[in-house]
């Protein structure tokens, strides 16, 4: 085939610290060029930019300008690296972390970009890991349970502080003026598509998983008014028409074409979530294929042909991953973040110096030491709640712990125990699905942590099942490109596009029976610890004392 006649699509993945663009061949999913642009503001956690207002505990904001800069820099650079002509590109798709949500005007202007609101924290986008809305989520859950709201079981019995309603209620009660000025309360996944097309759209995925949209409706105004009379009508800020995944959201505007270097009028796919598009990238869109996207946190997504109530799941949404199937989501709030925290705060400088002299990272050095141990030799068991618990407890005010430490405990002991804790947390999720009658037929791993072979083997041993691997280092961006191909009409649906363009290595890691038996014993101790502290009483009191001391 003449290269001039080949067709390509662009996928753009907006992550927590950076955005990545990849140029992908429509015929077979070959990735021919990519680029990354780091966010200038990264995560805004302490105070607003420019020595602005101080933020409270558990805040996490972002800047919309950082997202625009990804379009201006990463997309043209990826296109240049691919040596593909812009005229050969037929579509662009995007994905975002979720729930990353922002208040905006009816024209789509973020409120934080209005001069008079720039120094108001609640005018800025709230990143997925903004957890200070936990008290508001607790009230929503308590009221929904008391009223017997039919949607609550679809979310495992509890909605998260990370989601649209909890964050919206927090804005209303802590800054009513900003709430009143917000004509739109919109996921960043939809806002960036608005920037590309000039047309507002709302995707089915974020509405279902993060916006409590079930069976064609949001929670009613009577429910919202019982939370706060001024909260009635909140769903009017969310938009009513939902677009299917893989659908055509609109066409690239002249302004966005100037940013990206792509042709005006290009097909733009409906927005989506980073974890959910990764299922397509791994060609794991059939019932029972659970994809764990492992990075700073882990998100577990799985299509299924059956509807069930899974305790502590983040949600089950019809057509939420691929059309025609129920899409389940669960997750762990901290995984890679926990390992990074330990290296940054708990490893002596001597370890850094020795690792540096050998040209390896501290993570790699600790992995070497930990891998030399037998299962259980460190005598430790940890809880992986350092960033709260997303599934199955849905409580972001929980905190982590390590039990069994002595004066002989070494850094590599604790490091290994933390890795094992995240694997145990994943096993809790898998067991919850299967106990609810939703079988996990294949466990597929994606994300940055794939590079740690030791960690992958621990997961295989703890889960007692083979691990398959995505065949791409850029799963979300590839998944967005696959959705772009569908939106552009190159494939009939996401399933067909995933089969042609997605990549997966089956059974890349196999469990070792001896280690798996040993991990069963440790897992039993983990479950006892997990269940003992699940009510959060002690951990909540400690967090309250901390917050008072840092106020």
TrEMBL record:
Residues 291-488 form the Carbohydrate kinase FGGY C-terminal domain. One of its GO terms (molecular function) is ribulokinase activity. It is an enzyme of class 2 (transferase). Its EC number is 2.7.1.16. Pathway: Carbohydrate degradation; L-arabinose degradation via L-ribulose; D-xylulose 5-phosphate from L-arabinose (bacterial route): step 2/3. The keyword Transmembrane does not apply. Pfam families: FGGY_C (PF02782). Keywords: Arabinose catabolism, ATP-binding, Carbohydrate metabolism, Kinase, Nucleotide-binding, Transferase. GO terms for cellular component: cytoplasm. It catalyses: L-ribulose + ATP = L-ribulose 5-phosphate + ADP + H(+); D-ribulose + ATP = D-ribulose 5-phosphate + ADP + H(+). One of its GO terms (biological process) is L-arabinose catabolic process to D-xylulose 5-phosphate. InterPro entries: ATPase_NBD, Carb_kinase_FGGY, FGGY_C, Ribulokinase. Belongs to the ribulokinase family. PANTHER family: FGGY CARBOHYDRATE KINASE DOMAIN-CONTAINING PROTEIN, RIBULOKINASE. HAMAP family: Ribulokinase. This is Ribulokinase. The gene is araB.
């Amino acid at each position: 085939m003449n290269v001039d006649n080949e067709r390509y699509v662009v996928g753009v993945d907006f992550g927590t610290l950076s955005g990545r663009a990849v140029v992908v061949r429509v015929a077979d999913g070959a990735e021919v060029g990519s680029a990354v642009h780091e966010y200038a503001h990264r995560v805004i956690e302490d105070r607003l930019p420019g020595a602005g207002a101080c933020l409270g505990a558990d805040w996490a904001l972002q800047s919309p300008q950082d997202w625009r800069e990804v379009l201006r820099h990463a997309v043209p650079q990826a296109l240049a690296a691919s040596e593909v002509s812009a005229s050969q590109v037929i579509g662009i798709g995007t994905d975002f972390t979720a729930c990353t949500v922002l208040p905006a005007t009816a024209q789509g202007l973020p409120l934080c970009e209005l001069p008079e609101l720039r120094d108001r924290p609640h005018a800025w986008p709230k990143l997925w890991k903004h957890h200070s809305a936990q008290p508001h989520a607790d009230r929503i859950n308590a009221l929904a349970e008391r009223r017997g709201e039919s949607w609550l079981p679809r979310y495992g019995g509890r909605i998260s502080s990370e989601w649209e309603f909890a964050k919206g209620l927090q804005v209303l009660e802590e800054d009513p003026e900003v709430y009143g000025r917000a004509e739109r309360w919109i996921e960043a996944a939809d806002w960036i598509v608005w920037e590309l097309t000039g047309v507002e759209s709302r995707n089915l995925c974020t509405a279902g998983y993060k916006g409590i949209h079930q069976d064609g409706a949001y929670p009613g105004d009577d429910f919202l008014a019982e939370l706060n009379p001024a909260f009635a009508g909140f769903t009017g800020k969310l938009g009513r028409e939902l677009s299917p995944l893989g659908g055509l959201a609109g066409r690239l505007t002249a302004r966005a074409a100037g940013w990206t270097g792509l042709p005006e009028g290009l097909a733009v796919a409906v927005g989506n979530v980073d974890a959910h598009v990764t299922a397509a990238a791994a060609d794991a869109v059939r019932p029972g294929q659970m994809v764990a996207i492992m990075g700073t946190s882990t998100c577990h997504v799985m299509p299924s042909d059956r509807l069930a109530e899974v305790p502590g799941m983040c949600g089950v949404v019809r057509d939420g991953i691929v059309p025609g199937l129920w899409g389940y989501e669960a997750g762990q709030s901290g995984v890679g973040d926990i390992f990074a925290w330990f290296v940054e705060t708990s490893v002596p400088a001597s370890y850094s110096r020795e690792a540096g002299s050998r040209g390896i990272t501290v993570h790699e050095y600790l992995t070497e030491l930990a891998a030399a141990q037998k299962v259980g030799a460190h005598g430790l068991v940890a809880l992986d709640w350092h960033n709260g618990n997303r599934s199955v407890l849905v409580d972001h005010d929980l905190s982590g712990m390590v039990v069994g430490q002595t004066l002989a405990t070494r850094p590599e002991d604790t490091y290994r125990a933390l890795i094992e804790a995240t694997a145990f947390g994943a096993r809790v999720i898998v067991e919850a699905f299967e106990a609810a009658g939703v079988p996990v037929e294949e466990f597929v791993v994606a994300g940055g942590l794939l590079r740690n072979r030791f960690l992958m083997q621990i997961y295989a041993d703890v889960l007692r099942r083979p691990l398959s691997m995505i065949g791409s280092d850029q799963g979300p961006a590839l998944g967005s490109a696959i959705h772009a191909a569908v939106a552009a009409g190159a494939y009939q649906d996401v399933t067909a596009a995933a089969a042609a363009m997605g990549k997966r290595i089956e059974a890349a890691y196999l469990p070792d029976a001896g280690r798996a038996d040993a991990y069963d014993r440790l897992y039993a101790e983990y479950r006892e610890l997990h269940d003992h502290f699940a009510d959060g009483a002690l951990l909540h009191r400690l967090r309250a004392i901390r917050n008072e001391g840092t106020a």
